[in-house]
Design brief:
single chain; 315 residues; mainly alpha; 2 domains; three-stranded antiparallel beta sheet; 15 helices; globular
Length: 315
């Protein structure tokens, strides 16, 4: 009887070891999910898909869906000197294509953009009545008219961020988020190719997308505050647009989390190469810091609180 029990216990012990090993390895970060292309591989759609498939399943979702419907990435690939450098712009622009191409129309709700929000999840964001963004942003003082102001929200700007109010702003805000997301995900690829890769691109892409976070968040608050005071029906309809509020709140929250993770990677790079952290080397007067002072000011407190209130309500 003892021998039988002993044999049984050995089997159980073996199974436990296997389970523990599986648990350990499944929880260990895998740098590449599939074989990526070489760092200086040809700038083709196929290679870009291989790259993001290896490191960023969300970017792969966006690119593979738009490629399947017939898109070419050629124009966006020309924005960089290598695949990693061009990934940001490619994912950013193809996100725009995704939202509009896979949107839907109904006679009752009009047109809705399809927003990819991660983990193979999508949200349809419908449009309520809006006014042009320039109506609100034309009053922004010159010291807060940052790099992208003239392109996206100045009087006469043709970008959707001006033409379609908060809905156009959300589209750009989210596109910049996904651009940063793929940059961050490619950290192991840069690390594995340090001899050929330039950390300058990894850092400059971060700075670019970090500034975009502050700009589009600020313009959204400027727009909503103007609507709250001068266009009450417009404001009320936006706040009652469940999927808009949920999507904006999620992207804004995820963006902040992503920036924190990205800066930890930059700290590693800076400590290895310069002996000090990235975060300790940042100035106080760049676009991000200047606009965050406005974003967190009492002027926009009511709007910020309304977004939080409705986001909580719509959970």
């Amino acid at each position: 009887m003892w021998h039988k029990n002993n044999k049984f216990m050995r089997i159980i012990s073996g199974l436990l070891v296997i389970c523990l090993l599986f648990s350990y390895f499944s929880g260990t970060e895998v740098e590449a999910k599939s074989k990526p292309p070489k760092f200086n591989a040809a700038m083709t759609d196929k290679n870009m898909l291989k790259l993001v498939k290896a490191y960023d399943s969300d970017a792969y979702y966006i690119l593979s869906k738009t490629k399947k419907k017939g898109d070419s990435f050629a124009v966006w690939l020309s924005s960089g000197s290598n695949l990693a450098d061009a990934a940001d712009v490619t994912v950013h622009e193809q996100f725009h294509s995704y939202t509009h191409s896979f949107g839907k129309f109904s006679w009752s709700g009009g047109f809705s953009d399809k927003y990819y929000i991660g983990n193979k999840k999508n949200v349809y964001v419908s449009y309520t009545d809006v006014f042009k963004t320039e109506v609100a942003t034309r009053k922004i003082p010159s010291e807060y008219r940052t790099f992208r102001y003239s392109t996206y929200v100045s009087e006469g700007a043709k970008a959707s961020s001006n033409m379609y109010g908060v809905y156009g702003l959300l589209n750009e805000f989210t596109a910049y988020y996904w651009g940063m997301h793929v940059d961050y995900s490619l950290y192991p690829y840069y690390k594995a190719n340090e001899g050929e890769a330039s950390w300058y691109n990894f850092e400059s892409n971060y700075s670019n997308n970090k500034d975009a976070y502050a700009e589009f968040y600020y313009w959204t608050l400027v727009y909503l505050e103007y609507a709250r005071v001068h266009k009450k029906k417009v404001y009320k309809a936006i706040m009652k647009n469940k999927n808009y509020i949920k999507t904006f709140n999620k992207i804004q929250t995820d963006y902040v989390k992503l920036m924190k993770k990205y800066e930890k990677k930059l700290d590693i790079i800076y400590n290895e190469n310069y002996g000090y952290s990235y975060t300790s080397s940042r100035g106080e007067y760049g676009t991000y810091n200047v606009l965050m002072g406005q974003i967190n000011s009492s002027k926009y407190k009511k709007v910020r609180n309304d977004i939080k209130k409705y986001a909580k309500k719509y959970k």
